[in-house]
Amino acid sequence: MAETPPLQGIGKEPPPAEVVPASISEVLTGTAKDAVFRVQEYSYLALQAITNIFSRPHYIQDTLDQMDSIGVGSLPIVLLTGFFIGAVMVLQTASQFVRFGQTSLTGDAVSLALVRELGPTLTSLLVTGRCASGIASELGSMLVTEQVDAMRAMGTDPSRKLVTPRVVATILVLPLLTGISDFIGLVGGCVAAVFSLRLGVVQFWTRAIDALDFSDIMQGMTKALVFGFILSTVGCYRGLTVKGGTQGVGRATTQAVVVSSVLIIVADTFLTKLALYLADKLF
Amino acid sequence: MDPAIAFRDVRLGFDEGDVVRGLSFQVFPRETLVLLGETGTGKTLSLKMAAGLLRPQKGEVTVLGEKLGEMKEKALLNFRREIGFVFQEGALFDSMTVEENVAYRLREEHVPEEEIEPKVREALRFVELEHAIDQVPSELSGGMRRRVSIARALITRPPIVLYDSPTAGLDPVTAQTIIALILRLRDTYGVTALLATHRLQDGFALANFHFDAASNKVLAVKPENKDQAESNTRFVVLRDGKSIFAGSPEELAETRDPYLKRFLV
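The joint structure predicted for all components is written out below.
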């Protein structure tokens, strides 16, 4: 049998281009410039998402669709995790209170922790996992298949049609989801308290409700609002700046979740400090 | 006569370097200009600049008397309603049905619902896809998607239509159907067209055939009308982001340039 000749390229191969290695300072300057440019782009997108609300055209149907997809769609995971977080909080705090015979304080501790901190933060992180990734991948796919260009070519501003409805919808539904999560968390806490600590239902709820001030609820809801803004704008930004085809879409999706989650937790620290300061001054 | 589209020494590039390097050409009303070139020569970028989707870094792009480089994005959004754009892969909105895709512009302009349906049906009938009105893009073949994209571009009867490689990746029969549609659109509505392609036969088909409304067929241009038809179709050949040939189909067919001859094989 005749041997198959090896595959050959057509024509002469071009000589390899000379690669000049970049200096460390060049790399650092490039990275810093790139980071500043990204922050600038993100800030512009976030600002535009908000200013669009005050001028026409408005895409109300798109906003309602997004509220349905982000809000109603996230309800099952928020309910399920909220219930068990409340229950586990009761079990953990009670194990400490038992040591000095104050199990009745469990209601106070759980209710404050849930409403001020765990409710908004955990709900936002859950919604980030589900929706920031969804937004980034949806907008990213639209970008790589030229649907965003097609939209612009037909006279529609993608920031109004795609970004603002998602941002507004997330800002509106996240406090609602947080409220539901807080309530379900307390239900879970109550179930755990009744069955594991033998506390009375009325006693648990009375202490849980009495422990809360208006400022606590405000703190939780304000956090949810800010976190909603962060996760939706980061999701939109990552989606609309996808580079490198479908692989880029995957990367953008992951980055949207990572960046939003980190930003939410960092913002949480500053918001808590601010809220405690304001609560001290105002209430 | 003022040109409908004019590029003057246009440059555009990215981090990797300039892609469009000093491109100049003009398209006159009711004329079809075929931008011919290999992939990566800046055809799609040129079309996107003609629609104002990208801004040139240097030079000037004028469309219907407006200098696009100087217009703000909001003004450009309104201006783009004068232009139909057929994207390479169709770029249909995949979450919408064919009807919603074609009616998109009308709904954006708040045209009453009762006026929308007949217009959508008419546009879909033009591309012979009325039966697919309720389907979603994922259920359509590549050729059908391009036809829907053409219907979407013509729904508002724009005076200018830009085609980005409308036959790329299609089998010869489907490619012919798309070219026949472009001929019909040109000869029925008299649109000015800028067509980017790497297939020379598309350009020659536009020069040598016409749509006959009486018989509803695409016919070869009669020899006595050939000059007229050819003067309505011109070629610009791009290489490395620059125009290396501009002229009629006849001039291109008779070229002695070795690079251009490769297209003619």
